[in-house]
Specification:
Largest sheet: 6 strands, mixed
Shape: elongated
Mean pLDDT: 83
Strand content: 25-35%
Helix content: 10-25%
Oligomer: single chain
Number of helices: 3
Low-confidence stretches: none
Strand order of the largest sheet: 1-2-5-8-7-6
Distance between the termini: 64 Å
Length: 190
Amino acid sequence: MISDALVFLKSQLNTYLKSGWSPTNSGDDPVKFIDDDKMEPLLFNPNFITMLLINLEEENKLRDPNLYRRVSADGSYQSVQPEIRLNMFVLFVPRHTTYQHALEDLSHIVQYFQGHHLFRHPDALGLSDKIDKLIVELITLPFSEQNEVWNALRATYHPSVLYKVKMLVFRDENAIVLPEIEETILRITT
């Protein structure tokens, strides 16, 4: 599901950017994932925008009060493992030979997500059926935390923008139907 969400966002952003983007390698998508062979050390794709998942966070605020019980569509109760709700932190890093081109790409990314911060069915064509909706929120890190991110990536700083993508919900697909509890009234006669 994580892959489905990131591939969807990459595809949406590529569709938007292709109209005004002029890459060195024409015909290629402007936004790419990091190449697997360039993870150690981390190298960003030259003349492209690299999309990189840098963290996952569990969302605890929206937990159901009864974590181990769910009501199915037919009204019966099921015993389940609690849902896991995840937020993704996605970093977009444009790398170009000219600094101005990287800044222009950053502007286009911010502009796109400013107008397209909510993706849900049926409007979001291509969004996996496993995903109810995605909400994209700009994150501004203080300089110290931004420095920690780039140190953790073991890379030199590049102009970039960070988004929090909310929320993927992982549900227990192997729920067990609970037996109905019937109420019994006992009458005591004297």
